[in-house]
Specification:
The protein is mainly alpha-helical. It has a single domain (25-187, 238-388), classed as Na+/H+ antiporter like fold, CATH 1.20.1530.10. Helix content is 69%, strand content 3%. The chain is built from 16 helices and two strands. It has a two-stranded antiparallel ribbon. The mean pLDDT is 80.
């Protein structure tokens, strides 16, 4: 007997197919960036910016607790979910069978990622060594893994699967580098007592996994959110670091499989967390933007750091590693493909905008940095796409 198909199933089927495609997250992110820019430069710009300034928190006996504006909750709260998934990805790739599980597999993307972080930072510092924008040196170091992979998956079988693995591993190492930069260089005054309390909760989660064998997801959720995340948030160390550390304590066996948890959270991250973050952070008002803004040291530092620095760093360090015999190219890699991946690594949207918010907040330098991010990311993405689509794989 043929199973009955309901109207809601027929209506939901196209949406489900869209969500399951690898490139869909990048498409949604791109749409949200465009919407944010349109709102920031529309007659509703005042309402758009004012909306994210509304306060949300708790009050007890008239005293506020954890009371922050919506912008802060998105960047420190909702983005913690994104970094939790990043932590799960890092853990998966470091485990046996992962792309970073052995020196032979990991060495080339690690070297490429390090080169792709150091060269952009050096370019930025050279252009901003004596100015007020020096604090933004970490902005061009980051690659947006969702956007870069989204562009790559648009190419389908024109790109060998090995190149997708290479870019994924490179972007994950890049994410780890960005997390470390945030932890050590973009934190406010640190409360050592609260930081120690956060690590105590991490210790409890680790013990629950490896000593007590606890496999109840609620146990890790309560300790991770009410314990680790809250303690880090109040300590001055950015709360997203707590999410990465908590992810490494999640068990990886059958009853609460870390890979399954990561897979289950991916749609929420790709279609809720990142789009909301883009809507809250990507809107840049172009009112008053002049040539001096477009060619300011911050704009040039970020733009050239991402566009030229990523290319030089990724391609140069990869060629050097292979020429010295430290690593070998994956199957299907050639010079054109390597340049294409180097340009895709210049897409810095999510992570670069996130670091911009930490470095500059709502200052004029923040606007300049975002202009550099948009220009470099768009240019790098387009050039990388056309380089890689030139010839289909036989």
């Amino acid at each position: 007997m043929k199973e009955r198909t309901y109207l809601i199933d027929r209506l939901a089927a196209p949406l489900n197919r869209f969500i399951q495609q690898e490139r869909s997250g990048g498409i949604v992110l791109g749409v949200c960036v465009v919407v944010a820019m349109l709102l920031a430069n529309s007659p509703w710009a005042h309402d758009y910016f004012g909306f994210f300034e509304h306060k949300l928190g708790f009050r007890f006996d008239g005293r506020p607790y954890l009371e922050f504006d919506l912008h802060h909750w998105i960047n420190d709260g909702l983005m913690a979910v994104f970094f939790f998934v990043v932590g799960l990805e890092l853990k998966r790739e470091l485990m046996p069978g992962g792309s970073l599980s052995s020196p032979r597999k990991a060495l080339l993307p690690i070297i490429a990622a390090i080169g792709g972080m150091l060269v952009p930072a050096c370019i930025y510092i050279m252009l901003n060594a004596d100015g007020p924008g020096l604090r933004g040196w970490g902005i061009p170091m980051a690659t947006d893994i969702a956007f870069a992979l989204g562009v790559l998956y648009l190419l389908g079988n024109r790109v060998p699967a090995s190149l997708k693995v290479f870019l994924t591993a490179l972007a994950i190492v890049d994410d780890l580098g960005a997390v470390l930069v945030i932890a050590f260089f973009y934190t406010s005054d640190i409360s050592l007592g609260l930081l120690l309390l956060g690590f105590c909760f991490i210790g409890l989660m680790y013990a629950g996994n490896h000593i007590l064998g606890i496999r109840n997801l609620l146990f890790y959720a309560v300790l991770g959110i009410a314990g680790v995340w809250t303690a880090f948030l109040l300590s001055g160390v950015h709360a997203t670091i707590a999410a990465v550390l908590a992810a490494f304590t999640i068990p990886s066996d059958v009853r609460i499989n870390g890979n399954t948890l990561e897979h289950a959270m991916q749609p929420f991250t790709a279609f809720v967390v990142i789009p909301v973050f883009a809507l809250a952070n990507a809107g840049v008002s172009l009112a008053g933007v002049s040539l001096s803004t477009m060619f300011s040291p911050v704009t040039l530092g970020v733009g050239l750091g991402l566009f030229a620095g990523k290319l030089i760093g990724v391609v140069g360090s990869s060629l050097l590693a292979v020429s010295l015999g430290l690593a070998v190219f994956p199957q299907g890699m050639n010079l054109r493909n390597l340049f294409g991946l180097g340009f895709l690594a210049a897409i810095g949207f999510t992570m670069s905008i996130f670091i911009t918010s930490l470095a500059f907040g709502d200052s004029p330098q923040g606007v300049e940095a975002k202009l550099g991010i948009f220009t470099a990311s768009l240019s790098g993405g387009l050039i990388g796409y056309f380089l890689l689509r030139k010839r289909p794989v036989k």
